[in-house]
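Need the bound structure for flavin-adenine dinucleotide, inputs here:
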Amino acid sequence: MKGQGGQNRDDVVVIGAGIVGVCCALQLAERGLSVTVIDRKPPCEETSFGNAGVISPWSCVPQSVPGLWRKLPKWLLDPQGPVFIRKRHAPVFLPWALKFLAAGRPDRVDVVGDAMMALSRNSPANYRALLQDTPALELVQDSVYVFVYRQAAQANLDQLGWRMRKMRDVPLSLIGGAELREREPDISPAYEAAILIHEQGRALNPAAIGKAIADKAKALGVRFNLSETRTISRHGDGWTAICGDRQYNARKMVLAAGVWSASLLKPLGFNLPLEAERGYHLLCREPGININNSIMDVEHMCVASQMAAGVRIAGTAEFAGIQAAPDHRRAFVFRKALQSLFPGINTDQAEPWMGRRPTFPDSLPCIGPVAGQDGLFAAFGHSHYGLGQAPTTGRIIADCVTGRKSDINLQPYRTGRFT
Ligand SMILES: Cc1cc2nc3c(=O)[nH]c(=O)nc-3n(C[C@H](O)[C@H](O)[C@H](O)COP(=O)(O)OP(=O)(O)OC[C@H]3O[C@@H](n4cnc5c(N)ncnc54)[C@H](O)[C@@H]3O)c2cc1C
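Answer from helper R.:
Posting the output first, comments after.
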């Protein structure tokens, strides 16, 4: 379709080659559209590089839930705790935090839970479909999500998050320490119980999965350009991305630039509450132990998983803005958590990493047409769930761009919902 109407321009330009951008690009190309992807880095070298690898078809519990505020003081007072706010960032963070707490009202959480689930459903199968005929297919493994507890009494299925999952028929079970060690022989005997979420997927190398999707898109003709987009603007009946001395024109544009998307939209009059929720991981090469599933350490709020390169443990919410340098001490905090989970682990070769979750206060992304900007589509803000939700996001975007009605209600993901 390139060159229609006498103009040499693409049907679609996608800004951002993270997991969301590559899933959009492939599914747009599969619909026969000509697509260019612009990213200053190769595919999946930012947030999508180092996540915990959980591909959950059952994500339906938002980050903000009723009563969460009671836990905040304890977390914030502990410099090694799961939530950290750099002082200099506090004036920007506080208005966002008020919106975050408001999003956890009892009358909101179920609406958000349903909207999360709609994006997450069937995610392992969706990846397998996208990765069909690529060597990366084997990087998506069947898995169980194992929430481990030191005391049996803590594993309480009556807590809100578990009730929300049960209401949505998420397959759960509660097991004792003996069964936990049958499933995970290397786990410490200090853990007395676990709650399992079944029928999950896990990624053995999230970045390699994204790169394989990008390669498949390239084989369908999608071009990947290494450029930094400075501004986006409407140009005649299409859209232009201005990148240094080059510009890319297309009939339609998809903004999938993760946490950087909000600043590209700002000149068009949008002031979106998108925070960089910075997370860390520690990768232990030669760990000397094996993990069969994704393990959520409920005490330290981090997830340990066996990756192709070693054991990766990931978590933390650090609010310090997009630009601040990483504080890798926050990644090395995980060493203690790993040693208490797996007493036999070797953590000598441990490599830290930091990535920026693009997080809105209501745990939902923006997906779909940007109001008042004909031909511009949002695909960003997937916070903790972007790996799992990227394939369905790509399908929705392909529907929107080709004028097909999505089978998912897009109201909860409106860009205008914060005004
Ligand atoms: C520690 C941690 C653990 C996580 N664990 C999980 C998990 O287990 N399961 C799960 O589902 N999710 C998880 N997530 C969340 C998930 O990783 C993110 O939601 C997802 O990676 C977001 O993808 P994205 O494509 O929107 O953003 P990104 O991967 O950040 O991609 C955005 C891209 O846009 C490009 N870009 C930005 N601005 C410009 C510009 N101006 N010009 C050109 N290019 C630009 C960037 O270079 C980047 O490549 C985790 C995140 C973290 C940090």
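Comments: The first helix runs from residue 19 to 30. Residues 76-104+142-203+274-359 form a domain with the D-Amino Acid Oxidase; Chain A, domain 2 fold (CATH 3.30.9.10).
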